[in-house]
Design a protein that fits this description.
Blueprint lengths: L1 H11 L6 H10 L3 H5 L3 H6 L4 H10 L5 H10 L3 E4 L7 H4 L7 E6 L8 E6 L5 H16 L3 E4 L5 H11 L4 E4 L15 H9 L3 E4 L11 H11 L3 E5 L6 H11 L3 E4 L7 H11 L3 E2 L3 H7 L5 H8 L6 H7 L7 E2 H8 L3 H13 L3 E5 L2 E4 L2
Parallel strand pairs: 3-4, 3-7, 4-5, 5-6, 7-8, 8-9
Antiparallel strand pairs: 1-2, 2-6, 10-12, 11-12
Length: 364
Amino acid sequence: MINDLKYWVALNNFSKFGPIRFKRIRKYFSNLENAFKANLTDLMQAGIEEKVAGEFIVARSSINPDDLMEKIAKENIEVITIEDKHYPKLLKEIYNQPPLLYYRGKLTIADEFALAVVGSRKYSSYGKQVAEQLIKDLVINNLTIVSGLALGIDTLAHETTLIAHGKTIAVLGSGLNKKNIYPTQNCYLADKIVASGGVIISEFPLGTPPLRHHFPQRNRVISGLSLGVLVIEASLKSGSLITARHALEQNRDIFAVPGNIYSPNSSGTNYLIEQGAKLVSTANDIIETLNLTQVASYINNKTIIPDSQEEEKILTILTLEPIHIDELIRLTKLDTATINSTLTIMEMKGVVKNLGGMQYVLAR
């Protein structure tokens, strides 16, 4: 997989291989090394248009997979593909999910309980007051806060989460290398998010500048990572409404804070409410709508700390999908007696569940 990963990255470095074309490539080729080295005919048979395939063949002469991986490592950036079991669960559900993500920081089970918070770049004192109160209360309820690192409400959302000792995820419309982080004045905030246990994420390869058309694309990832989107102050032409539209397409809940009918900054949020968005005045409006009153206990139950090396090996393999004990033996390379005794202990502790027929899953 490590050897194949560099070809995921190499293909991703050709900008015209977006999520749709990448999906065609993955479906046609047995592995991505073959895809990267393919001739024009094979690329066309994979569903890539002749012009685009030809452009890629010319471009790949300047794409060195090993060099790309070295640059990623030097920037302390990690890469996760859609085939990885740790790829964000919510993001995997959307139609045009990124085939791979670059990230700095930690992706955890708690990120399944995330809310996007977006809004105007120029917020009012009312918007600031509302955002700070709502976000603090959401963090207390163990929600991860997702936003886009932009100036305005985005920055306020990240900073308020950090002050409240919560986790926040910043989704960028550029590469993650420091010289491309946008806006540049938020480079320090990006580092602070990572240092505080959060994560910064991008689907764009290293060296990608913050081009205008990247941000609507970025917005679908903000909503895709989240159970819902909260809009705090936004005009009718705000990018926040693009995020809300993506959320609607992704079957996510949309929340909006009502505002002054005479304020342009409230025209977008008031419009969303008219169109059926949930009116929000307290964090409980969100918690109850999303049915998240048991988030804390769920996260605690899912964050399982192994008590032995044998348990650790088993926990790296077990998921909520049933797996037969014979497969566990094969993958862990533990003998039958050790597997049986360890699973019995783990079952007694409520860590795993025996479904019968020697099929095991993680306990919910």
